[in-house]
Amino acid sequence: MPFSFRLLLPAVLCLVVPAWCLDVLAAEPPKPTTTADTVIASSAGPLAAFRFVFQVGSQDDPKGKEGLAALTAAMVAEGGTQSLRYDQVLEKFYPIAAGLSGRCLKEVSVFSGTVHRDNLGVYIPLATEMIASPRFAPEDFDRLRKEALDYVTKTLRGDNDEELGKWTLQTALYEGHPYGHPDRGTVAGLNAITLDDVKAFHRDRYTRQALCAALAGAVDESTSAQVEKGLAPLPREGTGRGPELPPVKPTVGLDVTIVGKAAESTAISIGFPIDVTRADDDFYALAVANSYLGEHRTFNGKLMQDLRGHRGLNYGDYSYIEDFIQEGASTFAIPNNPRRQQYFSIWIRPVPRDKAVFALRAGLWELDRLVDKGMSPEDFESTRSFLLNYSKLWGQTLSRRLGYLVEGRRYGRKDLIAELAERLPKLTVEQVNAAVRKHLKPPGMKVAIVDLSPDDLRRVLMSGDQTPITYDTQGTPENILAEDKQIAVFPLPSVRVRIVPASQMFEK
């Protein structure tokens, strides 16, 4: 039987709670049946997927206690229940090959799991008790807060230059904004949080009003009843929705933050805010342009082809029209990472230090070419075809498909894969190029660089001097050498540079 993606779309049940998450359903017959507070589609297959999405995230951290939302989510997912220690929870999950993962993002906290239908009777009471009645044991609080502090002070600062650069970019983009700190928190914020803070945050923010509980696959009305029973301890209402978001301050020229660190190579991130989300029609035109410029970890993008393929600068170079968090070892973004405000970014994975400014210029040059010249009809057709097919891979699991359906409702749209399948065939190259000119030509950009010699790098950036590239091998094609001459002198307008030692990042 030939492969059919349509046949893999999940049947979905959504416990109807907030207005932003009503009646999440696959567009598949037969039509659902409706009860007072659930909408249930018919189910097939042996697996059931669960997503519990709370409209509460790191944007809701109180000032001075940055990391509270993430620490609360960790206590829910990795802290046991009122009746079971966490090790006992794991002992119950192990024989049914299941679990409940948790993640706190900017605007939501997401808990998800998948289980065989034969084990629903064990899984649902356990998973819902974790969410509705966490244990909040002092020893779990100490352990998880230490893990969060270690992530900020050791992983981000010491072990992962790429993540350090990307979080430096975000904190620069959103300085003084609810988005303006790592989701896991800051050093001062985490040290200020108490166990009572976590208990109060869960009580006030983990409410049925804030929850979208979505189920897919082997579910029916009895499944709904079990979930309802398990979530009954949650209060119906709490302290309300997320904060009002101020506009992001625009940047003029290049505002560069160099993180000084003993790094073997130089990581670069570039970005600026955009006023486009999946709720906007222009998003889908930009999705085509972005796939042409730099689809994550694919060779379809010009950044990847030109910076890595033709010049061998690094492992990879990509661009994004919304916040991107990679799911595990895949090449795909995690579902359920909605934001009311988004940003465009270019990620230049670490390059040799002597080629850092050339690589920065190359990324800016590629974006400038796209804005100035636009996509050709031929590039448009090939990229649109690629994206139409590649996007089908984003729904490889029941849980991911469920996630896309939930976030589609959040934006008032179908799931992302369905939206692309419907919209891309109708798009024109003129619409794509118009969206690029409208949204991807800002007055300035933020740049985050992790580098061993920040003073030397600052001098080069501020000088405006050309930065030619030297190759270690012979035989570089003439057309690439001709482009190199343009890139080496590509203007870096109104450069401002601040240097921050890695040891001082994310302190407050």
Spatial extent as radius of gyration:
24 Å
Helix/strand/pairing category: alpha+beta
What is the makeup of the main sheet?
A: 7 strands, antiparallel
As laid out across the biggest beta sheet, the strand order is: 2-3-1-7-4-6-5
Query: How many distinct helices?
Result: 17
Please outline what is shown here:
The chain has 17 helices and 13 strands. With 508 residues, it is α+β, with helices and mostly antiparallel strands. The chain has a seven-stranded antiparallel sheet with strand order 2-3-1-7-4-6-5, sandwiched between helices. The protein has a six-stranded mixed sheet with strand order 10-11-9-12-8-13.
Describe it for me?
This protein is of the alpha+beta class. The protein contains 17 helices and 13 strands. 40% of the residues lie in helices and 16% in strands. The chain has a 7-stranded antiparallel sheet, with helices on both faces. It has a 6-stranded mixed sheet with strand order 10-11-9-12-8-13. Helix 9 (282-294) crosses helix 15 (429-439). The model is unreliable at 1-42 (pLDDT under 50).
Entry keywords:
17 helices, six-stranded mixed sheet, alpha+beta, 508 residues, seven-stranded antiparallel sheet, 13 strands, single chain, disordered N terminus, 40% helix
In terms of topology, how is this protein built?
Elements: E1 12-15, E2 33-34, E3 38-40, E4 47-54, H1 68-78, H2 86-93, E5 101-104, E6 109-116, H3 120-132, H4 138-159, H5 161-173, H6 187-192, H7 195-205, E7 211-217, H8 221-231, E8 253-260, E9 266-274, H9 282-294, H10 302-309, E10 317-320, E11 342-351, H11 356-373, H12 377-390, H13 398-410, H14 416-423, H15 429-439, E12 444-451, H16 454-463, H17 478-488, E13 495-501
Parallel strand pairs: 8-12, 8-13
Antiparallel strand pairs: 1-3, 1-7, 2-3, 4-6, 4-7, 5-6, 9-11, 9-12, 10-11
